[in-house]
Amino acid sequence: MTDAPTEPFRALTGMRDVLPPEAGRRRALLARFAAAAERAGYAEVSVPVLEELGVFERLGEATDVVTKEMYHFADQDGTELALRPELTAGVVRAFVQHAPTQPWKVWVAGTAFRRERPQRGRYRMFDQVGVEVLGVDDPDLDVEVVALAWQALADLGLRDVTLLVNSLGDHEDRARYTEAVRAYFASLRSALSEAEQDTLDRNPLRLLDSKRPELGPMVAAAPSLAEYRSDEAAAHYERVLAGLRAVGVPYTEAPLLVRGLDYYRRTTFELTSGAIDAAQNALGGGGRYDRLAEDLGGRPTDGIGFALGVDRVLLACDAEGVFDGAGPALDAFVVDLTGGEAARDLTHELRAAGLSADRRFGGGSMRSQMKHADRSGASVALIVGEDELQAGEVTLRPLRGHGADDGEQRRVRREDLVAALRALPAHHDH
Ligand code: AMP
User: Fold this and answer.
1) Residue 112 scores a pLDDT above 70
2) Which residues contact 197 (CB under 8 A, 6 or more apart)?
3) Residue 267 near residue 240 (C-beta atoms within 8 A)
């Protein structure tokens, strides 16, 4: 036995407990996302939180997510393991391992870990939801995927969202463009900060989405990506933009959007919120990748996907005052003044009938139990006193503010109770 700590334990820096009702709100968001993805033919996949380090190293040696922020350690047997910093690599690893029929359209939700400097909207443990499709290179699929991300946010009620779209061209285009950008910034090296010089050496494209204002004019005069796209990549991009217009998804072209991970090609996109802090305003993003399956030991396979950051999406919902996530209230709160058996049996009976019911343990006066009933958010209190018990009845008292019915208290026979509760306007099927 070790001694009890002198201070109570706390969650690790950047790792948050999600308490009620926020945890319920997350689940509601997830349920909506799942329903929308499944309407579009995506099936759920779930992959491990822990993988061999190599799975994530394939995301690119030039990305901070991999080089600086990944939690990794040697297992007892010496294998290098890592907590996933994002979900795509694990999903593609699973695709390669199980070789499912293509196209493979999946949605995924889960927790990712990055050892970042925590701040509002940026944590060391956060949730993502997203989709991945493997085995299709049709630009109309890009439209489907981008529209799904856009619609998921719109359906929550978010209005202040901007969709940024770009095409990085094919690998050769991207490589040529990277060299042009490298040469351009190399000629301006002395104007770059030390960190930027480091970025220039490791991943020059990332200078293009630098947030430092002084870099703005230099970025504006940098070589333009459009001139480096192959004809095929340009045609693909045009078809994607035409498709977005056709389905009514408003977009902004963002030639400087290069995104963090190395494996993207052709379509890349990001969704930003105007309602939250600019430094953490990316709600999600994604794009096409093809080399990832190959890098993970499979055949070259076209892939496209996106991830939305659940934590940030909910911050944006707070900022816009939408999707408070209040779940359906309880149908009933049992107030038992006869010793507790009635509360025990009634709650059981109601729940078995598919209604939601709660009660107070430990009894208490009418007044105190009614206070709990009010606070529970239930539509009605079901009061059982000696009188009701003898008569085989229950007093159904609508609680204020829940629109239960006309507000009149009434007595209901025990055997009619389920039907009476189902008939209440505030009743939801659970
Ligand atoms: P990324 O894979 O970096 O494009 O991340 C996709 C989305 O996940 C971002 O747009 C954010 O919404 C979210 N996200 C990324 N990193 C974090 C973090 N450290 N904390 C909270 N959300 C994050």
Assistant:
1) yes
2) 189
3) yes
Predicted local confidence at residue 428, as pLDDT: 59
State in Å: Cα 309 to ligand 1 middle: 5
Is this model's pTM higher than 0.70 or not?
A: yes
Beginning with the edge strand found earlier in the chain, give each strand of the sheet holding 72-74 in spatial order.
50-52, 80-83, 72-74
Ligand 1 center–CA 231 separation, angstroms: 32
Ligand 1 pocket residues where CB is under 6 Å: 86, 114, 116, 122-123, 126, 128, 260, 282-285, 307, 309, 311-312
**CA 114 to ligand 1: nearest atom:** 19
Residue 65 contacts by C-beta under 8 Å, 6 or more apart in sequence? 59, 85, 86, 114, 260, 261
- Strand pairing of 80-83 and 252-253? unpaired
pLDDT in tens, 300-356: 999 999 999 999 999 999 999 999 987 778 999 999 999 999 999 999 999 999 999
Alpha carbons 49 and 203: distance in angstroms, whole number: 27
Q: What is the DSSP letter of 94?
A: H
3-class secondary-structure state, position 108: strand
> Whose C-alpha lies nearest to ligand 1, atom 2?
86
Domains and CATH numbers, the chain: 22-170+229-320 (3.30.930.10), 332-429 (3.40.50.800)
Is the separation of the CB atoms in 151 and 308 below 8 Å? Answer: no
The upper half-sphere exposure of residue 378, i.e. CA atoms within 13 Å in the direction of its Cβ, equals 27
